[in-house]
From TrEMBL:
Protein name: NitT/TauT family transport system ATP-binding protein
Single annotated GO MF: ATP hydrolysis activity
Organism per entry: Natronincola peptidivorans
InterPro entries reported in the protein's UniProt record: AAA+_ATPase, ABC_transporter-like_ATP-bd, ABC_transporter-like_CS, ABC_transporter_ATP-bind, P-loop_NTPase
Residue ranges annotated for the ABC transporter domain, each copy included: 25-257
Keyword field: ATP-binding, Nucleotide-binding, Transport
Protein's UniProt keywords contain Ligase: no
PROSITE patterns on file: ABC_TRANSPORTER_1, ABC_TRANSPORTER_2
Keyword Transit peptide applies: no
CDD domains, alphabetized: ABC_NrtD_SsuB_transporters
SUPFAM superfamilies: P-loop containing nucleoside triphosphate hydrolases
Source taxonomy: Bacteria, Bacillati, Bacillota, Clostridia, Peptostreptococcales
Amino acid sequence: MEAVHKVEERSNVKELKSKKKKIKLSVKNINHTFKSQNGDMTKALSNVSLNIEEQGFVALVGPSGCGKSTLLNIMSGLIKPNQGQVLLDDIPVKGVNDRIGYMSQADTLLPWRNVIDNVALGLEIKDVSKEERYEIAQRLIDRVGLSGFENSYPFELSGGMRKRVTLIRTLAVDPEILFMDEPFGPLDCFTKEMLQEDILKLWQENKKTVVYVTHDLSEAITLADRVVIMTARPSIIKSDYDIPLTRPRSVMDIRFNSKFIELEKMIWNDLKEEVKREG
């Protein structure tokens, strides 16, 4: 398929694209090693470089334990790499940055705050007036189908509803770039598909730059414009695939698309070698 390229075949294509689209985030020569409690050293990332275009949706996929989440945490400023740097609009990322939104797999809602107050939390921290933050929160609550649950507490919500609240809380502060670390991992497949539909609709509306970590290849192809394959540890960028599926997309329909099926087979043949190595 002409529209799909491995990273070593795409340098000329990337140069042409970069003239049209701004590079929002640049990862340059990242190396990172962890030291365990018993003193053993484990190299997680080896000379990783990656450019993320503005308004792009990039999925990072690789075998379990390969360093996907470590790379995401370095990108977001939560971890300082041993070597290399991350640039956001050509400015080095150093520590937590309010231009960045982050959604993890963990349930991070505050149990003593109701839905609307959880959604408005970041705005409250930024000293946005109560009237304005409630207006923003209500608009997002309505957008993801949670109208009527504004005064409900997290323990009264289903797992999928809690994830929706977490997602719109992240979006409420209007970050320039959104990092998502397997946000729907623990959910059942039906709930996950409904949330993926929410992601697609919200992205179509606001075109945020998104970096999305997942071990689910189908999810990556469904959501992203590019799928980046990471090798088994110590991880490097093995391949970088364009996803030439038209937008807007429907989660329920796209997986029956012949192009989707062909892409999934092609990328899986590349990925399974790394899964075997890690296993």
